[in-house]
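W.,

You were right to be curious about this one. When I first looked at the sequence I had no strong expectations either way, so I just let the prediction run and decided to look at it fresh. Below is the sequence, 527 residues in total, followed by the output.
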Amino acid sequence: MTKNVRVRFAPSPTGPLHIGGVRTALFNYLFAKKHNGTFILRIEDTDQNRYVEGAEQYIIDALNWCGMPADESPVNSGNYGPYRQSERKAMYKQYADELINSGNAYYAFDTSEELDFHRKDHEAKGKTFIYNWHNRFKLKNSLSLSDEDVKAKLDAGDDYVIRFKSPQNETLHLKDSIRGDIKIDTNILDDKVLFKSDGMPTYHLANIVDDHLMEISHVIRGEEWLPSLALHYQLYTAFGWQAPEFAHLPLILKPTGKGKLSKRDGDKLGFPVFPLEWKDPKTNDISRGYKEDGYFPEAMVNFLAFLGWNPGTEQEIFSLEELVAAFDLNKVNKSGARFDPDKTKWFNHHYMQEQDNDTLAKVFKPIVDNKLDVIASETKQSASLDEITSSQVSGNDIDVNYVEIVIGLIKERATFISDFWDLSHFFFTAPISYDEKASKKAFKDSTKAILTEVISIVNTIENFTVENLQTDIKGWVTSNEIGFGKVMMPLRLALVGALQGPDVFDIMYLIGKAESLKRISNAIEVI
């Protein structure tokens, strides 16, 4: 690729950024970095009626959280700014006038009421109203009116729009990097509005002008913009500019595979569709975000990359750097990509295992402290804190190093940090009840005598280590020809309150000798 690659992600600040938008930004970012190019964030805020306070910052924060900050943006200006369309307002009129002067566009003075009448009249006749070559000379515009009438209307300040004059009886030959060659009959195209009398351009004009002035080399955007491709190509031709290469990404589909993924799907099935939590400034409604739901940004980037792209290998786990190296627009699919919530969790589980335990401990420790505070306030005592050794606890505050060791034992079973407490609560507080079904399974007539003997063995262990616990208890079980299940199941139940958790001897070692003995004795008494 010889041309200087410059791509842009150009969202409108009308609300939170949907993961479909994040996927579009990701593919632009990967393509730019693959070709040593520039990734640009442009805020397309020409529709001020739909502008939402805080949406622009949300977009920037979301890209930064995903690890793909823009090289040029409203907060990181380059040589092609401004990077908000509202700040570029003054430049668009000259390009609209240029199209008027070249005969590629015209003034239209039709009122909304008049156009609505034509639409309803066509509907009544079973037709669709299209403003183009077959009726433009019958409507109120600078093609049907005299020059004097047009000037008079403009001088009087009459409302108008500037429409593109779509050609008649032509076939457009367009090219899309993902979808290949596309043929369009210009007779079916309408004369799109490019500019309004309020001084603001429509998306179509502003988009083309900005892409040209910012020297965008490739336009990589969602499939929903495919119907605009014909107009955009024609605008480049009308201006005499070289068009960028276009690539339209496939839709992200509902988990059922039918229809475009929406927020409603996430609400119904219990998964977020936004990268970050969003609080609507008007309604104060809060929408869930992947970050706040406990997803790692690496996981989100990894699963988004596979929504419409396939590397052609069996590899599924990619770092951002590996995605950059492997990404190829030729490997992006045409058909829609089904969103699989379970697969997103699979990715997060993988990245959970790659996290440093000390980093996770710093996040989990405040959760532990809060849980223990709640338990203490509810029971007027923190069940096992008085018994845990001073090396593990400072006052009522769990040592972060202890939390780190616990995470190392339970992380393999976790998908989210929020899973940690259910997987490890018994390391921090003694059980106050015992699973009824597990109790019936683990406790038999001989169990009391067996656990009483286990207490005696534990009491004799001076050097309280995992190895010594294993050696002495397993040795006793073997020598007395007792089934391991008869010992280990009730022992686990006594320590945990359920038949769950990592190795029993790891649990005993971490909670300490005194706490282990206390829990076993309590289980004998209660069960």
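Here's what jumped out at me. The chain has 20 helices and 15 strands. And, maybe more interesting for your project: The first strand starts at residue 6 and ends at 9.

Coffee later to discuss?

I.
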